[in-house]
Specification:
The chain is mainly alpha-helical and 399 residues long. Helix content is 73%, strand content 0%. The chain has 18 helices and no strands. Helix 6 packs antiparallel against helix 7, helix 12 packs across helix 13 and helix 16 packs antiparallel against helix 18.
Length: 399
C-alpha cells in the first residue's frame, strides 16, 4: 500500500504591522492610491482641527459659563445639595456596576483609564478648589463602591432596584428643597441637571407604560386592544415637537381658569413620556411576537394562567430580545430633551443659546456646541455600553 506523504502546513506570514498594511491597505495599485489620498485628507483635517483648537478657538466662553452649563441658574449657596445628589448616584451606580462586573477582573485596563481620565479632568478643570475636592472625593467614593459591590452577595443586591426607587424622593427633595430649606423653583433648574432630570424620569415612566401598551395591543379584550392601538397609532403619527407644544403652550388654554397651573417640568416629562411610550410599545410588541409559540404552549400545559404566563414566561423573553431597540429608544429620548429649548426651557441646548445671546460671546458657536456635543456623546455612549453589557450578560443573539 502506497503511503500518503505528510505535507507541511502552509506558510503564513508573521502578523506584523507591515504585513497587515500590505494585505489590507496596499494590496493593489488602486487601493494604494486610495490609502495615500485618505491619509493626506485625514492629516490635513486633523491638523486644521488642532491648529484651530490651540490658536483660534476662544475657550474662555466655557470657563466663564461652566456653572450655567451644568446647573443653570441654580442658587450657588445651594450647590452642596447637588454635590450630595451626585454622591448618592455615584455610590449606588458604583455598587450596581460592581455587582454586574463581579465575574470580570477587578481593575481592568479600560476601567483604570476611565478613572485616571476622571481624576485628571477633575484636577485640571477650571473650577474652584472646593469643587475640585468634592469631585475628587466623589470619584474615589464611586471607585470604592465599585470594589465593594463586587464583594456583596447577589441576594443582597437583589434589593438594589428598590434602593434606587427609594433614593428618588431623596434626590428630588434635595434638588427642589422644602421642609425648612429654601425651595428652588423649577424655573431656576437648567443645564445638565435639568436635561438629566427630564431624561431619567421620562425613561423610568415610559418603560412600564410602553410595556402595558404592547400587552394591551395584543390583548384578547377588544376594547383594550382598540384603545391601545388607537393611542399608539395616533401618537406615532404626530411629531414630538407638536406634542411638546400642546403640553407647554396649549394645555393651559383648555383648562378652566380656576385650575392651578401645572409646572412646566411636569408638562415636559408628560410629553416626552407619552411620546416615547408609543414607540417603545411597538418595540416590545415585536419582542412578544418573536417568542416561540412552543414556550407558550409548554407553559399552558403545566397549568399557568394568562397573567403568570405573561409575567414569568413571555415578557422576560420578549424584553431580552428587544434590548438593543430599547437601548436605542432611550438614547433617542435623552437627545429629544433638546427640543424643549424651543419653549424657553434652559436645558443644555437652551443654556447654550442663552450664553451665545450674550454680546460678549457672539460668534462662539463652535466652542459652545462642541462642548455640549461632547457631553451628549459621553452620556449616550455610556447608555450604549450599558445596553451592550446587558446584552452580553443575557446572551442576546447567542442562545
Amino acid at each position: 500500500m502506497e503511503t500518503v506523504p505528510i505535507l507541511p502546513p502552509p506558510a503564513t506570514e508573521s502578523p506584523t504591522p507591515w504585513n497587515w498594511a500590505r494585505k489590507n491597505l496596499f494590496s493593489t495599485w488602486y487601493n494604494s492610491i486610495l490609502t495615500v489620498v485618505c491619509v493626506i485628507i485625514a492629516f490635513q483635517t486633523i491638523k486644521g482641527i488642532i491648529v484651530w483648537a490651540t490658536t483660534k478657538a476662544q475657550w474662555h466662553v466655557l470657563e466663564a459659563n461652566l456653572p450655567l452649563f451644568f446647573v443653570g441658574r441654580f442658587p450657588s449657596e445651594s450647590y452642596w445639595r447637588l454635590w450630595i445628589v451626585t454622591a448618592i448616584i455615584s455610590l449606588l451606580g458604583g455598587l450596581t456596576w460592581g455587582n454586574i462586573q463581579r465575574q470580570e477582573r477587578l481593575w481592568n485596563p479600560p476601567l483604570l483609564i476611565l478613572i485616571g481620565a476622571a481624576v485628571v479632568g477633575a484636577v485640571i478643570s477650571p473650577i474652584d478648589l472646593t469643587s475640585r475636592l468634592y469631585l475628587l472625593g466623589i470619584i474615589i467614593a464611586a471607585a470604592a463602591s465599585y470594589a465593594i459591590g463586587r464583594q456583596i452577595s447577589p441576594k443582597i443586591m437583589d434589593w438594589m432596584p428598590a434602593i434606587w426607587v427609594l433614593s428618588f424622593p431623596i434626590v428630588l427633595w434635595l434638588i427642589k428643597g422644602g421642609l425648612g430649606w429654601a425651595e428652588v423653583s423649577t424655573n431656576d433648574w437648567g443645564g445638565l441637571v435639568l436635561t438629566l432630570f427630564l431624561a431619567v424620569i421620562s425613561i423610568v415612566l415610559s418603560f412600564p407604560l410602553g410595556v402595558l401598551l404592547a400587552l394591551g395591543r395584543q390583548s384578547s379584550l377588544p376594547v383594550v386592544r382598540l384603545l391601545s392601538t388607537l393611542y399608539i397609532e395616533i401618537i406615532r403619527g404626530l411629531p414630538l415637537i407638536g406634542i411638546l407644544f400642546l403640553g407647554q403652550v396649549m394645555l393651559q388654554l383648555f383648562l378652566p381658569p380656576e385650575y392651578p397651573k401645572l409646572d412646566r417640568v411636569i408638562r415636559a416629562i408628560a410629553g416626552l413620556t407619552l411620546f416615547s411610550a408609543a414607540y417603545l410599545a411597538e418595540n416590545v410588541r415585536g419582542g412578544l411576537q418573536a417568542v416561540p409559540r412552543g414556550q407558550i404552549e409548554a407553559a399552558r400545559s403545566i397549568g399557568l394562567n394568562t397573567p403568570l404566563l405573561t409575567i414569568l414566561i413571555v415578557l422576560p423573553q420578549a424584553l431580552r430580545i428587544v434590548i438593543p431597540a430599547i437601548g436605542g429608544q432611550f438614547i433617542g429620548l435623552f437627545m429629544d430633551t433638546s427640543l424643549l429649548s424651543l419653549f424657553g426651557m434652559l436645558e443644555l441646548i437652551g443654556i447654550s443659546r442663552a450664553v451665545l445671546a450674550n454680546p460678549s460671546y457672539i460668534g462662539r458657536y463652535a466652542e459652545v456646541y462642541i462642548f455640549v456635543g461632547i457631553i451628549y456623546w459621553i452620556f449616550c455612549y455610556s447608555m450604549s455600553l450599558a445596553s451592550r453589557k446587558i446584552e452580553r450578560t443575557l446572551g442576546v443573539g447567542q442562545r
